[in-house]
Amino acid sequence: MAIDQLYPPQQEQAFRLANAMADFFDVDSQYFAVVQGVDECPPTVTYAARLGIWLGDWEVLRGTVRSPVPETGFTVDVDGDSFDTRKGLTGAVYQAMVVQNPNDFGPDTPIRSIRSSGIFFPRTWITGDSATPHWAPAGHVDLEKDGSRRAEIWGQGRHYDHNGDGISFRPAIQLPAHP
Questions:
Q1: Cβ of 74: how many Cβ atoms within 10 Å?
Q2: Closest Cα partner for 89 from 135, 147, 46?
Q3: So what's the pLDDT on residue 160?
Q4: CB neighbours of 131 closer than 8 A, spacing ≥ 6?
Q5: Is the pTM higher than 0.90?
Q6: Pair type for strands 172-174 and 118-120
Q7: What's the rounded mean pLDDT across residues 33-61?
Q8: Torsion over CA of 45, 49, 54 and 58, rounded to 10 degrees?
Q9: Whole-angstrom distance, CA of residue 88 vs CA of residue 126
Q10: Could you state, in order of their start, the residue ranges of all structural domains in the chain?
């Protein structure tokens, strides 16, 4: 959902959150969108570009989970309030983001690699769901035979090495309820 489709008070808040996250993570604010689903997916401003913000390989993620990254590395301040941008991207938010961006260049769409004659499957760390020292949930997109896209969440009970691919991050903040 485009930010300009929200109620005016939420629209203003969403623009402020998107701009703050864009400045903090040095990305273009045009790639932020509001995703919304059912109860487990409240309206959330998230980075919905084709590729997330690169974090590195799974060894980097493993170190991040084992010794938590200082909150300042992921926290943005907006209008005197601090927001941890890791908490907003749950599995439900990720799935809603994929469904609401059905085009060929939507978030985490597999990319054919000319150099390796293979396909690169981007993965996003699902930072709003819990992780342990042995696993961390990650989302990716499968392309179905009919051309549709489906979000899949990996991680629970799996080791970090997801086929050797790296991991990216999508900052996300849940919007407060409008008055």
A1: 18
A2: 46
A3: 44
A4: 65, 137, 155
A5: no
A6: unpaired
A7: 79
A8: 80
A9: 9
A10: 3-174
